[in-house]
């Protein structure tokens, strides 16, 4: 760590960095930062920077407000944006109590704690998300955050994998990918998605903590590059009625002793007992973790039948109507054996999302859960009665339903810790109550003229 610290200080001096942003997130996954000058960086790396945690939702109470942001020097990165011509850098931070212990309200700590549980069982946890998002024409309403009665306007009319002539959306996506690559963030694929204005960037797998940091970085880079061209980029799960929503299908795998623990060469499908139990754990606890993987009222406008998003607790090989999918593994690429969890959306807190997914999978391994039968049909075509007869449960249909399941969940409470668990439930119940008090444009358009 000392050599990494010295590398950071050397880079700041050699690259002429004028400001270093200390990044962390609140419980909801909102990025936060404290900017310091190079003169303060050495002290920050050694001792951390104290700030008032009571000013941030989900952090400290007023009577215990001060916390410390301690930079993780392994996350240092020069940013592609400049402030008044000055070079910027960022470093992610772990948040500590004043006595140096890990702060319970830090989402990064929640994921670290879950990863330590995996390490204690000999596993390393990897993640590879597919981030979907929309580009919309910016306007005064969107810029000010004010109400806009008309739907947002996509900046293109493309569809799946469409190869278009050079246009603004293509340029933005291309510049974003190149910028991420320049930052050392490898992109596996980038493409146009199904809906107008919808695009996708798939990230190459890495350990889950690095990937959670990366998701936070990618969301900022996508938005910043779009804003430079007067475009609104959004990771809102369902911004357009009648179109596909944006998901964050994420591929997960466990490695043990440098080998993929999900692969078994003696199994007909190449799937190990560990993988089967991990999937069984995901299925068993999926309803409980959905409030974390899909944390907004709007998230459940995406999780509806007919738009390719999962709505039932099920699994299958290469069946995109299921919650858990086993992607086809290329010949000779057995180390890429993985599980794709299709529920999360790109507006979740990635630290908490990865933590609860890992906890659910590990519980399946610890308890030896049996994997239920594979879904053999397109579940979108089955009735509720047919699904029930097959023993297939639905995912929660609303944030309210998801919270009611989550609040009874021992595994989510243990994984998040008391501080985050209680604050998350309190905040999300408030969001649901506020949503229920709203009179929407749909209601005005449907009822006002006739009732």
Q: What is the CATH H-level superfamily of the largest domain?
A: Glutamine synthetase/guanido kinase, catalytic domain
Query: What is the structural class?
Result: alpha+beta
| Mean of all residue-level pLDDT scores | 89
Largest sheet: 10 strands, mixed
Number of helices: 13
Q: List low-confidence stretches.
A: 60-64, 140-144
Which overall shape is indicated by the principal axes computed on the Cα atoms? globular
Helix content: 25-40%
Distance between the termini: 68 Å
Account of the 3D structure:
The protein is globular. By secondary structure, it is an alpha+beta fold. Helix 9 (350-367) packs across helix 12. The chain folds into two domains: 2-103, Glutamine synthetase, N-terminal domain (Ubiquitin-like (UB roll), Roll); 114-447, Glutamine synthetase/guanido kinase, catalytic domain (Creatine Kinase, Chain A, domain 2). The strands form two sheets. Strands 7, 8, 9, 10, 11, 12, 13, 14, 15 and 16 form a ten-stranded mixed β-sheet that branches. Strands 1, 2, 3, 4, 5 and 6 form a six-stranded mixed β-sheet that branches. The protein contains 13 helices and 16 strands. It has helices spanning 2-14, 38-47, 107-120, 140-144, 168-182, 208-228, 273-293, 299-302, 350-367, 384-389, 399-406, 410-436, 441-447; strands at residues 17-25, 31-36, 49-52, 66-71, 77-83, 86-96, 124-137, 187-192, 198-203, 206-207, 231-234, 250-256, 259-260, 315-317, 324-326, 339-341.
């Amino acid at each position: 760590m000392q050599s990494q610290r010295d590398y950071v200080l050397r880079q700041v001096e050699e690259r002429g960095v004028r400001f270093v942003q200390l990044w962390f997130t609140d419980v909801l996954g909102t990025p936060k930062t404290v900017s310091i000058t190079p003169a303060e960086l050495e002290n920050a790396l050694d001792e951390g920077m104290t700030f008032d945690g009571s000013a941030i939702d989900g952090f400290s109470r007023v009577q215990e407000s001060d916390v410390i942001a301690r930079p993780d020097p392994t996350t240092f990165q020069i940013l592609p944006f400049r402030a008044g011509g000055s070079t910027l850098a960022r470093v992610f931070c772990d948040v500590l109590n004043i006595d140096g212990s890990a702060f319970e309200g830090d989402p990064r700590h929640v994921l670290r704690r879950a990863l330590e549980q995996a390490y204690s069982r000999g596993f390393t946890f990897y993640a590879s998300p597919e981030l979907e998002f929309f580009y919309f024409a910016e306007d005064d309403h969107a810029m000010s955050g004010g109400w806009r009665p008309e739907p947002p306007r996509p900046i293109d009319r493309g569809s799946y994998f469409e190869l278009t002539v050079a246009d603004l959306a293509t340029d933005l996506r291309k510049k974003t990918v190149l910028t991420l690559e320049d930052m050392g963030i490898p992109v596996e694929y980038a493409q146009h998605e199904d809906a107008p204005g919808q695009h996708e960037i798939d990230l190459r797998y890495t350990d889950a903590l690095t990937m959670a940091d990366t998701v936070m970085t990618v969301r900022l880079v996508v938005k910043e590059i779009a804003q430079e061209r007067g475009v609104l980029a959004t990771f809102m799960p369902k911004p357009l009625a009648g179109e596909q929503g944006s998901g964050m299908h994420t591929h997960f795998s466990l490695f043990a002793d440098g080998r993929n623990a999900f692969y078994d060469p003696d199994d007909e499908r190449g799937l190990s007992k560990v993988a089967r139990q991990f999937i069984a754990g995901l299925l068993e606890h999926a309803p409980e973790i959905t409030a974390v993987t899909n944390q907004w009222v709007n998230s459940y406008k995406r999780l509806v039948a007919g738009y390719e998003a999962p709505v039932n607790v099920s699994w299958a090989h290469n069946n995109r109507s299921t919650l858990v999918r086993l992607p086809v593994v290329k010949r000779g690429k057995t180390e890429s054996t993985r599980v794709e969890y299709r529920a999360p959306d790109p507006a979740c807190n990635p630290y908490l999302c990865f933590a609860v997914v890992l906890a659910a999978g590990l519980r399946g391994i610890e308890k030896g859960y049996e994997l239920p039968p594979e879904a053999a049909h397109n579940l979108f075509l089955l009735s509720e009665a047919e699904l029930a007869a097959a023993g297939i449960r639905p995912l929660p249909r609303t944030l309210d339903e998801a919270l009611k399941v989550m609040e009874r969940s021992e595994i989510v409470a243990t994984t998040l810790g008391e501080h985050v668990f209680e604050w998350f439930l309190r905040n999300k119940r408030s969001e649901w109550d506020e949503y229920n008090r709203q009179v929407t444009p749909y209601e005005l358009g449907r009822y006002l003229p006739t009732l």
